[in-house]
Design a protein that fits this description.
alpha+beta; Immunoglobulin-like; 2 domains; 3-stranded mixed β-sheet; 12 strands; elongated; binds dinuclear copper ion
């Protein structure tokens, strides 16, 4: 289908929940197109068949037609009732209540990135969220500051992330792959660059990935990386960022414990490369204006050792 070329699209659903929603959407499209074609068809038929010719007398005048009125009330009522039922049953299938159930992962929206805490696992990541395929996952959706909205079209429903409230989503991913999404509620200057990447993996691979995330950050070995770590601590970067196993334990910005294992940086804005990291550290506000990272004035050498340190954090 042509629409599935628009990636990511709801027409290339990769989870059971997304398929349910897509099927319902298709029913709506079929019904709407059917009604549109019927109305246009009747309009053309009536215009041609009953068109006036020169010299015609005034047509017969009448008001009211019980049969036509009955049909015009019954068909829309049945359609609305039917779709109401289909919508409710889809909602029930896709998003049943989850009160008291333990989530697999707690997703928290921040200006302008996503935090994911693997419940009970002491594993915290940012922006690139791994999930297992083949089983039903419960996700909690929360917000740290303003309202955000989680939406990965191929994986199903959108869900608002609201400060002070815990919303939830169920997702049963069918096939491994990388699924992209974006924040879908305007939340500030970098709303458009609040992308999401969900990496769906077979269960064993996923468990292995979680185990690796649970480990503390690697200790730097090269002289340059050691200098970078010292610089990181001296500049109190750890007031905002956490690097598990070190004194850095802030939770304002993304957890950097396994920063170098991510494919992208700045919430999916660009590939995670040394060059991009250097540009970012030199002038965050030029790269992503409005992000919470302040502009510090660092020398080239300081930035080089910092990059050497951060790129070891696999
Ligand atoms: Cu977060 Cu828009």
């Amino acid at each position: 289908m042509l629409l599935s070329l628009l990636i990511p699209s709801i027409f290339s659903s990769a989870s059971s929940e997304a398929s349910e929603i897509t099927t319902l959407t298709l029913y709506f499209i079929i019904a709407s197109v059917g009604i549109l074609l019927t109305v246009i068809g009747l309009l053309i038929y009536v215009s041609v068949k009953f068109r006036g010719k020169p010299g015609d007398p005034e047509p017969r005048q009448f008001t009211g037609n019980k049969v036509v009125e009955g049909v015009m009330i019954t068909i829309p009522t049945l359609l609305v009732g039917g779709f109401f039922y289909l919508t409710l049953s889809t909602m029930q299938t896709v998003l049943p209540p989850a009160d008291g159930l333990k989530p697999e992962v707690v997703i928290r929206g921040h200006q302008f990135w996503w935090e994911a805490q693997y419940a009970g696992k002491n594993a915290v990541v940012a922006n690139e969220i791994h999930l297992p395929v083949g089983r039903r996952i419960l996700m909690h959706i929360e917000a740290a500051d303003v309202i955000h909205d989680w939406w990965v079209p191929e994986l199903g429903a959108k869900m608002d992330a609201i400060p002070g409230r815990t919303n939830h989503l169920w997702v049963t991913i069918r096939k491994p792959g990388v699924y992209e999404g974006a924040c879908s509620e305007f939340c500030g200057a970098q709303h458009a660059w609040m992308r999401i990447r969900v990496v769906a993996q077979p269960e064993a691979e996923y468990q292995q990935w979680v185990r690796e995330r649970q480990q503390n950050a690697v200790t730097p070995t090269t002289a340059s990386a050691v200098a970078g770590a010292a610089f990181f601590n001296r500049e109190t970067c750890g007031t905002c960022h956490r690097i598990r196993g070190t004194v850095a334990n802030g939770n304002v910005g993304p957890d950097l414990t396994h920063f170098a294992s991510r494919q992208t940086m700045l919430s999916g804005m660009m590939p995670n490369t040394r060059e991009n990291l250097r540009r970012w550290l030199q002038d965050p506000q030029a790269v992503k204006p409005g992000a919470k990272m302040p502009r510090f004035i660092y020398s080239k050498d300081s930035i080089n050792v910092l990059v050497d340190y951060l790129t070891t954090l696999k």
